[in-house]
Amino acid sequence: MLAAQRTAKQLTILAVFLIIVGGISFTSYRIVSPPQPTPTPPPEAGLEPVKVLSTRVFSVRDNDYDFMALVKNPNQTHGSREVDYVLNFIGPDGEVVKSIPGKFYILPGQTRYVIESPLVIDKPFVTHEFKITDVVWNKLNILASAEIDLVVLNADYSEVNSGGLFSRVEGVSTNNSDFDLSDAEIVIVVLNSVGEPIAVNKTSISTFLSRTNRSFEVRWPSPFIGNFNRLDVGIYTNVFENTNFLRRVGGQERFQEFNGE
Fold this sequence. Notes:
Helix content: 10-25%
Low-confidence stretches: 13-41
């Protein structure tokens, strides 16, 4: 009887020892190799791909070109801090004469322009292709993104035809949000009477302070094909980059606190 009790006691002590050692080992493993975060769902898990609505190449002069793509994110809860693409120019024999990699960001439900300018292509080409190669999806709180309110108040087109300048656009934008922003991007698309793009340009605003207005200007040195009818102007900022938010007026909170990731 005593032997049986002694054996049972030894087994109990051994079990407790194994549990303690196992717990220590598991804790050590968790510290050395923490579990990987769950990745944002890919398109096949319920997200639609970024759509390319249209593309166009504009001949500026000689071997100088501008490129424009209009893209749309149909997803209402997810955007992307990084959409990778490649822009290929195809020669008469089907070969790629120039390949340009790039990336852009896009908000949930956003339709935006992507501009490559200036481009120098010194080999003849007959067509082009714009391919999205990868998308890093990020869930974004819609209420948070709505707090970033950038507006182009006015943009005026004028033809100069003097001193090496053909035309220009001058305008004013405003930052209606409570955030001081490191950078904002402005894209200008010139449209003809039937709504077709005939020229593009872009500029940026650095250190865009909260509740302030900033002027901008873009220029075209050479005439472009077609007649001006109206402008389509887009203003964008990267809400996925925490470093883009310099300060929140009235507090030091970072914008990413609103992020739904």
